Input
Amino acid sequence: MSRSLVLNASYEPLGTVAARRAAVLVLGHKADCIHPTNLVLHAERVEVPIPSVIRLRQFVSVPYRRRVAVSRRAVMARDGRRCQYCGAHADSIDHVVPRSRGGQHAWENVVAACRPCNVHKRDRYLKDSGMRLRHPPTVPTGVVWSIVAAGGVPDDWRTYLGEPTLHAVPAAAG
Output
């Protein structure tokens, strides 16, 4: 089963839940279905459209924002699937300071790269390879990135996520 986007009462994105959990929240009058899918959950006496987007009826205070884990998918989303050395289509990730030379697997040290640039740079420092970054790698902020990192973004979620970089993230199938 697919996932549903959960919005706070203020329409702020909070995260995602399994579509079945979203339907339970709607049935329990804890949330409203904002965008239904074309799928229906059947029970003995009721049929509930499976929601793609729900909005909680009561505001939920979020005390902290968790840091998004570094993953290949999230790095590709952050960098728009573009090589941060030449601008071509990226198909791998590269550690700016190679791990073999003490570089960390952290947001500030990982970029999307095309295969030719990744092969050319090898395990060298940038200055030794003669290459330079188009944009310095940064830590993505906001709950939007935890959603993006989980996978593609369906078209009906985009209105609520509001990040300008989402144009680079493919829509989820189904």
